[in-house]
Write a structure and sequence with these properties.
Layout lengths: L1 H19 L1 H9 L4 H22 L6 H28 L2 H8 L2 H12 L6 H19 L11 H24 L5 H23 L10 H26 L4 H4 L5 H12 L7 H20 L11
Length: 301
């Protein structure tokens, strides 16, 4: 049992680290294509990776549950990711990654408001610290779009995380009766089909030629590693140990993402952004370990 718990936590840690690579790979692809095309290709490759599960796992959802899944998929795939990566196109990988550190706190507030879970004093302190940290990062982004961090780009990333909250809550409701594999595979596929429908409105054509091998590699990695693999690893990991303990590993995502931006892309974080990032990560750690809301339990049990 102890060995399986250790493997479960290792899976959660690896999933969070892969999630942290998403902005890095996205930035590489955005150098050669628009936001809509990049998001479409990411989920196309994710659907390809998950497609065998569509044949091995029957959904058995009723009509109401299909509607919930469709609504959650629309929020979680087209809406969230198009806004999130448009924000990334206006800011830096390191800034966007640190903003993702606000997600545990957003989940806590969502649980308190929509799931009627009580947020204790420690939770509210963490919320205040995380909000102040996000404000410090956003206000430190004063460069022009495309040349460095911007306030608009940082705020769009946070907006996408608020949208992700409703995606997670919708999936959580469905996973009380259905397996995480079913919800992940069919939800991702539905979201990709929605991208196919709205694609002609958002981008006239998908680029196929004159795309470098690096960009294709980034797109494939985004789909296979940062979308399909991460979700499956995380969900399996949570079945092997307490979600409240595994939730702290979510902090690997902003850590890995910001380090990739700084070390590989040569981005720079000023003292204000460093301070804001430290506040966000500290708030997320405190909330995950001590809050009575059990934030990580919302992350696809």
């Amino acid at each position: 049992m102890e060995k399986r718990r250790t493997l479960g936590f290792a899976a959660c840690c690896l999933a969070s680290a892969f999630w942290g690579c998403g902005f890095f790979f996205g930035k590489i692809a955005l150098n050669e294509m628009g936001v809509g095309a990049m998001v479409f290709y990411r989920f196309l490759f994710a659907t390809i990776a998950l497609s065998p599960l569509l044949f091995t796992h029957r959904p058995n959802l009723n009509r109401r549950e299909w509607l919930i899944l469709a609504g959650a998929s629309f929020l979680g795939v087209p809406l969230q990711f198009l806004i999130q990566f448009y924000g990334l196109s206006l800011t830096t990988v390191s800034h966007a990654s640190l903003m993702v550190g606000t997600m545990p706190v957003i989940l806590a507030v969502g649980a308190a408001v929509f799931a009627h879970e009580r947020l204790d004093r420690t939770g509210w302190i963490a919320l205040a610290a995380s909000t102040l940290g996000a404000a410090l990062i956003a206000l430190s982004g004063t460069s022009k779009a495309g040349q460095g961090p911007t306030l608009a780009g940082d705020l769009l990333v946070v907006l996408s995380l608020v949208i992700a909250l409703f995606w997670i809550l919708g999936n959580k409701q469905l996973m009380e009766r259905h397996s995480a594999i079913v919800i992940t595979a069919y939800g991702t596929t539905l979201g990709t089909l929605m991208l196919c429908v709205i694609g002609p409105v958002l981008f006239a054509r998908l680029p196929l030629h004159h795309i470098s091998g690096a960009a294709w590699g980034a797109l494939i990695a985004s789909g296979f590693l940062c979308t399909a693999t991460t979700t499956l690893l995380w969900n399996w990991g949570l079945t092997q140990g307490p979600a409240s303990q595994a939730g702290i590993l979510l902090n690997m995502e902003p850590l890995v993402g910001s380090l990739l931006g700084i070390l590989i892309l040569g981005e720079h974080l000023g003292p204000t952004a460093w301070a804001g990032g430290a506040m966000i990560l500290a708030a997320a750690a405190i909330l995950t370990l001590h809050s009575e809301t059990s934030v990580s339990g919302l992350m696809q049990e």
